[in-house]
Amino acid sequence: MSHRAPNLPQLLSEARRWFEDALFASMEAAGEQPVTTAQASVFAMLDAEGTTVSELARRVGVTRQTAHQAVHGLIGLGLLEQVPDPGSARRRLIRATAEGRRAHERAQATISVIEAVLVDRIGPVPARALREALTSDWGEPPFVAAP
Fold first, then answer.
1. How many helices (H) and strands (E) does the chain have?
2. What are 30-86's pLDDT values in tens digits?
3. How many CB atoms are located within 10 Å of the residue 97 CB?
4. Domains of the chain (ranges plus CATH)?
5. Which residues contact 110 (CB under 8 A, 6 or more apart)?
């Protein structure tokens, strides 16, 4: 059996893991509470005024139960809180606490440093091309017949 080159989804997954490994290790070394990848993904999708668990699940692409578990783990760490939705008595919004906002700002600053390291390693032209490719409009996902 010959070794095949990784496809784009595999390469994108490895690149994301590279960033997450750097971010999580850097944050823990700085004394921040450790979080899981699912928790970080949920946190990154929050609106400032708050977001429902169902909407977080949709944005992250996970089940409502998975989002709920991540949210409650972050609530337990003191990074998120549940508040009543002013637009609906039946819904609750999830939003960052003051500690959560502080940790998020630190994470964003850390990501900026990690991105600068990437630019140093691969060069500014490839880094710019990568950002342009990832921010381009790819359109709706295609439906293709399996070969």
1. 6, 2
2. 999 999 999 999 989 999 899 999 999 999 999 999 999 999 999 999 999 999 988
3. 15
4. 22-133 (1.10.10.10)
5. 23, 26, 27, 30
Q: What is the pLDDT of residues 11-24, one digit of tens each?
A: 999 999 999 999 99
List CB contacts of 53: < 8 A, sequence separation 6 or more: 64, 67, 68, 71, 92, 94
pTM for the model: 0.85
Q: What CA–CA distance (Å, rounded) separates 107 from 101?
A: 10
What Å distances lie between residue 48 and 7, 80, 94, 122, 139, CA to CA? 36, 11, 9, 34, 27
Q: What is the mean pLDDT of residues 94-102?
A: 96
Q: Residue 85, exposed/middle/buried by CB under 10 A (0-12, 13-18, 19+)?
A: middle
